[in-house]
Design a protein that fits this description.
alpha/beta, Signal recognition particle alu RNA binding heterodimer, srp9/1, 2 domains, 4-stranded mixed β-sheet, 8 strands, elongated, Glyoxalase/fosfomycin resistance/dioxygenase domain-containing protein
């Protein structure tokens, strides 16, 4: 079994996944647009949405982060993530610093990267794509 996170974007999935690949040293292994879907699906998709991402998968150390742009057929309007964070458990303070700086670029920091009673480094931020993150580099027990 594998537990993965699937993010929904409001039209900027491609840019977000390219950003995450750089920040997290990941590899985009899938990036499919709505135009690449079977013809019956493409016909139902408005032309202005066909270049949007239907499915993306980023591999990071054998783990997956997946996502897509919201479909125009979705009955509910797009809403940003609420009540959850993607947590990155990072091995070294240096990597925590590097990743924090990358994800925080043009984002909003809720808690700056600092030492806590449980972690060598911990931070909370929302990146420029509206995705909330926790950076956690735990102390040895």
């Amino acid at each position: 079994m594998r537990l993965s996170t699937y993010l929904i974007f409001n039209g900027d999935c491609k840019a977000a996944f390219q950003f995450y690949a750089r920040c997290l040293d990941g590899n985009i292994v899938a990036m499919h647009t709505y135009a690449e879907a079977p013809e019956e699906c493409v016909q139902e998709t408005p032309p202005e949405h066909r270049d949007k991402i239907m499915h993306a998968r980023l591999e990071i150390d054998g783990q997956w982060l997946m996502g897509s742009d919201i479909t125009p057929q979705c009955p509910a309007p797009y809403e940003a993530i609420k009540g959850a964070h993607i947590t990155l458990n990072i091995d070294t303070p240096e990597d925590a610093e590097r990743i924090f700086q990358a994800l925080a670029d043009n984002g909003t920091v809720q808690m700056p990267l600092e030492e806590t009673f449980w972690a060598k480094r911990f931070a909370m931020l929302t990146d420029k794509y509206g995705v909330p993150w926790m950076i956690n580099c735990e102390k040895e027990v």
